[in-house]
């Protein structure tokens, strides 16, 4: 009887020891898994930080590219503003002016009847070609004004050196 009790006690002690060992192994395994999980999280965080850093650098480079483009655009616009007056003069002296001259020649060939009784009567509302004298073409609006007037009859722009006298 004592032997049987001793065997049962030994078996119970052995089961307790095995359960304790199993719990210890499980705890060690859980601890190892947790350490691996933490390491993996650290690695992922480092990778995310590197990606964020690269993204920031990319954004900075993109912003710098945009700023450079804007600077270049502004520089070109400034240069264009400086170049525009001669360009406009050339344009008006060129094709536009040629077309205006042809139009003026056609008007002179077929003069409209004047509202005024006297051909020499002054008046702003009268067409310039009805006076029969020379006139100039405004570089701003293209209106024909007699040579005797210094300001355009239509837009009041002063006659400049680019204005063509016809």
From TrEMBL:
Lineage: Eukaryota, Sar, Alveolata, Ciliophora, Intramacronucleata
Protein name: RanBP2-type domain-containing protein
Region (Disordered): 38-130
Ranges of Basic and acidic residues composition bias in the record: 38-128
Domain of life of the organism encoding this protein: Eukaryota
């Amino acid at each position: 009887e004592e032997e049987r009790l001793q065997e049962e006690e030994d078996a119970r002690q052995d089961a307790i020891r095995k359960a304790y060992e199993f719990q210890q192994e499980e705890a060690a395994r859980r601890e190892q898994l947790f350490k691996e999980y933490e390491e993996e999280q650290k690695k992922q965080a480092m990778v995310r930080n590197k990606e964020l850093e690269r993204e920031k650098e990319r954004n900075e480079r993109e912003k710098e590219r945009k700023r450079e483009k804007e600077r270049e655009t502004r520089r070109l616009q400034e240069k264009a503003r400086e170049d525009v007056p001669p360009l406009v003069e050339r344009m008006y002296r060129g094709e536009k002016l040629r077309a205006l001259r042809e139009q003026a020649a056609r008007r002179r060939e077929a003069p409209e009847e004047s509202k005024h009784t006297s051909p020499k009567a002054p008046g702003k509302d009268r067409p310039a070609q009805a006076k029969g004298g020379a006139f100039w073409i405004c570089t701003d609006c293209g209106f024909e004004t007699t040579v005797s007037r210094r300001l355009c009859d239509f837009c009041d722009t002063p006659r400049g050196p680019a204005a063509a006298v016809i």
